[in-house]
Amino acid sequence: MRRTDLVFFLSGLAALVYQTVWGRLLARLCGSDAAGVATVLAVFMGGLALGSALGAGLARRTGRPVRLFVVLEVVLAVWAGLSPELLSALPPVASTLGRAGTASLVLLGPTVIMGVTFPLMGRLTIAEEHQLAGETSAFYSANTLGAALGAVLGPFVLMPWLGLTGALRLAAVVEL
Questions:
Q1: Closest Cα to residue 35, out of 81, 83, 102?
Q2: Could you report the per-residue pLDDT of 3-33, keeping only the tens digit for each?
Q3: Residues 153, 148: Cα–Cα separation, whole Å
Q4: Residue 49 in contact with residue 119, Cβ under 8 Å?
Q5: Of 169, 130, 121, nearest in space to 22 by CA
Q6: How far apart are CA 122 and CA 169, in angstroms?
């Protein structure tokens, strides 16, 4: 196993802990009905997609992809660690537009950052064109396996053991 695989595994793990905890925290503000959950999920996935689109060009242009990846991961960890305070300062919302605005305010920044890191993973691991399929599969697999573990650990282990804020902060430490 390469060191980058471990980094991408841990990044995926932290990301899914964030997603599950943010989903629970935002349910308090946006509701836990189908519309509230769909809004949070749409903003989360939309942020990832937007970040990936932005990150593709950035990954090609940057002269220091490792440094950029590290800076983005640190910003993401700090944002995640501070997000419970941000969320507790926001009032509950009932309207669909208000829900989307609240979810966007909290989630777009970190999810765009997560999306940007994906093309950077490719830049960090793919040296030549003929490596594209194999290396993409390797880093994506490591990240996805970490995400799967995070999706289980978050709600079934970390949240009951540490609470929502504690689970988020532990995931931020893992991210770092």
A1: 102
A2: 888 988 999 999 999 999 998 888 877 777 7
A3: 9
A4: no
A5: 169
A6: 27
